[in-house]
Structures are given as C-alpha cells and as structure tokens.
C-alpha cells in the first residue's frame, strides 16, 4: 500500500513514525525507572521510584503530585468524564481515610489522601486497554501516561537527591563560590536584602519557590485545554520540557556535586547541614575570601543539587511557555521567573553561576525537543550543539579556572553574562524563524475610476 499519493503524505505515513517514537519513549522511560530502582537499592540502600509509587496504592501518599497528575490526565476527557473522575478519586480517598482512622493507622505529616487520584489514573489505563480502540485508546493512554509520569517524576527526583548525598561525599562548593566572585557574590547580596524584608519577602519568595510545580501545572493545563475537543496533544508543551529537565539535571549533579552557600558557608537549612560541615559561618553577611579552592567533605543527607539550578531552568521553561498565553499568564510567568531567581539566591540555595548554567540548560533542552518535532531541523541541531558547548564550557571554567575568574572579575563577569546572553539571543532568533508567519490580508482590487 502506497504511503504517498501525488506528493501528499497519507495518515499511515506519519502515524507509524509517531507511534514508534511514542513506543520508544515509553520503553526508554520504563527502562530508566528500572535502572534507577536497582541503583537506589544497591548504592543508596533505599527503595526506588517504582516501589515508592506502588506503595502509594495503599499507604497514605503526598496528595499534591498525584492530584496534579490526575488533572493533567483529565485533559483527554470530556467534562462529564472529568466530574466522574474527580468524584471517584475523592470517594476512594474518603474510604481510605476512614479505614486508616478505623484501624488507627498513622500517616506522615502532609500525607493524608491521594490514593484516589492514583487509583483513578490506573483505572483509566485499564479502560483504555479494554474498552477503547484506535485513536481513542492512544489518546487516553497518552493522558494516563502523562499523569503517571508527573507523579513518578516527583518520586524519581527525591530519590535522585538522596543518591547524590549518599554517593558523593565531597562537594565542589569552594570552586563555585570562588568563581562566583566574578559576578559579585549575588547570593550574599540577595540574602541580605531578603533578610531585610523579612517576614514579607521571605514568606512570598518561599511560597513561590515551594509551589513551582503548581505554576507549571497551571500553565500546562492552559496549553492542553483543547486536547479533549481536538482529540490530539499539541506538538510541544511545557510538561515535556519540565520532565526532561528533571530527568537530565540530576545526572549533572552527580558529575558536579554542590550543596549551596547556606550549607557550605552557613548553618544549613531544612534540617540538614550545620556549621560543623561548613567552611565557615559566613553567609550572607561576609563574602568568602579568594583562596585556592579544594573539594570538601559534607554530610550524607544534604542533596548535591546546585549545578545547574533546576529551579531556574524550570522557571525559565514556565516563562517561555507563557509567552503565547493571555496577558495575565504572561505577567504570571514573568513574575514567577523573577521571584524564583530571587528565592534561589536569597535563601542561599544557589550561587549566581548556578543560575547562568540553569538558563543555558533550559534553553538547550527546549530547542532540542522542538527540533525533534521538526524532524531534526538543522538550525535546531546547531543550536543544541552550541548550547551544549556553552554549558560544558561554564562547568569546566567553574572547576578549573575559579581563581582566575575571581582575580579578574571585570573580565570574567561580563564573559559569563555574554555567554548566557548569546544562547538567549540565538534562542530568540531560531524560534522566531520557526514561528508560522501570518499571511497578509488580501487586498481588494482597485476600483476603476469613473470617467
């Protein structure tokens, strides 16, 4: 059977590659989760993401990720089906809560309900396989997969952070802090500003930092609002970028373990770290002196999750994907990016160098995904190569040139900003070329003059 008729591609010609792509992505994701499960048990002595997700079918889970996943799954449903799904999830949760209360089972703080959302998603997976066929089955399975991936992504990220702490006993904070001198120690500056605005500034930025995933779900729901009506997902959306950032980022943590200024140069936070592990108790009032950096031992529970700043990368992705939304969404995306940058620095979780790497990381992944959708567009491949080279150059310079960077801030500070700006400029240019151009409105034929 011919796949092309008179130069036009029939549905069979594009369905097969798309189906292969989705099948490959599914197998790769499952393989990654299995490998992470084995790695977590063997090297960190903890259950992996598959075990943790399976436990939440019975034990009290944290509700946020599961109900966010359910919300994403429901974009493929009709409004009637959405009400049924939400009602079923709440009803199942009520039953679980009553049973736990009856048997006097204790639940961890903040882990009271959420089983219902997971059971509903699993139920729709069964419905897709047994009661649907063709495009309806594929669409429903995509929705379920998206919801479960979001829920499992949180588990995967948490386990990755534990693995970084247990397998990387030494950290490279002294190198990054020294290189950060080229930028003027922004974490120390913003940290003092945030302390001066306490408690208003602290509470506001703390809320923004903690609810980044909520903002992402809101933007994703806007982008996917027409999936149920159109019967297909848009070619590209925020969830894809968000998940890939979370998938690849922890791998960089393993190569470049850094805990952050509040830990390496302060008392720690969130119950981890401490002055006994720090170089000195300097953050945020006394910038560190320029000395020869060395790897330093740190505790076995604080995540090495600074380089690059994934919060910055995710906030950048949110900003990018709100540019085509309504005005209020664009304003919200801009606010979330600025507030996230302030929070990452002001709470001492990141150095300025981390943020620069995070922006480059996010833009490179964004273009890579869009380039794949365009069949490996040449300009997209060139951008990905350039972004990867800039990102690698940043990490190499932080590791091997920190003293030189601190000694010549007038040179290396602008170079770091220019490197990031060059990636931003190329991103704006290439995505501008990819945007469809509006056809000019037809002009009426000129009327002949009356004689």
Automatic annotation (TrEMBL):
Residues 20-163 form the DUF5933 domain. Pfam families: DUF5933 (PF19356), PAP2_3 (PF14378). It comes from the Bacteria. It is a multi-pass membrane protein. It is found in: Membrane. Residues 187-364 form the Inositolphosphotransferase Aur1/Ipt1 domain. The keyword Cell inner membrane does not apply. The chain crosses the membrane at residues 20-40, 83-101, 113-130, 204-222, 242-265, 328-349, 355-372, 384-401, 407-428. Keywords: Membrane, Transmembrane, Transmembrane helix. This is Phosphatase PAP2 family protein. The lineage of its organism: Bacteria, Bacillati, Actinomycetota, Actinomycetes, Kitasatosporales.
